[in-house]
Design goal:
By secondary structure, the protein is mostly helical. It has 14 helices and 3 strands. It is globular, with a radius of gyration of 23 Å.
Amino acid sequence: MTGDLEFHKQLFLNFLIVEKSLSENTIFSYKKDLERFIDYLKDVKKIFQVNEVNENTINQFLLHLRSKISKDGKNYSDKSIARFISSLKSFFKYLESENVVSVNPIADLETPKTSRNLPEVLTIEETELLLSKPDINNKLELRDKALLETMYASGLRVSEASNLESGNIFFDEGYLRVLGKGSKERIVPVGNVALKFIIKYINESRPLLQNSKSGNVLFLNFRGGKLSRMGILNILNKYVNLAGIKKNVHPHTLRHSFATHLLKGGADIRIIQEMLGHSDISTTQIYTHIDRDYLIEVHKSFHPRA
């Protein structure tokens, strides 16, 4: 049992939950990657113990992945392969730290470089059009207005908006306290417009939605429970359609637009990093590429020699 793959996979996942406090989605990704790897080891290589895995075994697994077709009928991309490598590196680093393996078989393997697709963003005009569509005289649409204004004003992830509690809104100071990825807490400014509609929603709509199970969650569904990820997506899609916006808009689009509009307005990239809750500045720097495209477009439009 000491070197059993399944046994150590479960210990590793428990470690991610208890020690690392990672999100459910992240842990699920690790779980699926490791299950795919372990199934390959058992079915193809007849390997059942972690100390039987070497660098050659892992290289053969990656070649096996490249030759396979994923569930959606496509070949695994470099991005997917990079994710598998990242999951395996974390797994074997954990095994090495626990003295389960003496040699880390994946330590020297390089992750393939992947091109980062620039996220879709809304223009300021499109954002204003979108935010104008909810009817604030309707109790549910007033909630929608407050929700969308808050997500755009503070660049919240959909999970952060869903879990936001009334007690974490500091009206006089003008900021929110947000619990982000890995249970990391951060302070995020929120504008006067968003605060105005949060107050109106709390006074006029939330009392009509809440029940004994609502707790302190700010944004409630019509049953009085917390808005789900899918619920927020459906709300956004409703007003995207009403606004006639043809772009591929999802909840993260408001976060991307928040960062891009700040950058265009002259905000420092490290301040944006802090507000977004990115631990690595390279994650935030994708927005400099979006802004560069904007600068090039401005140059083409206005420079006499362009």
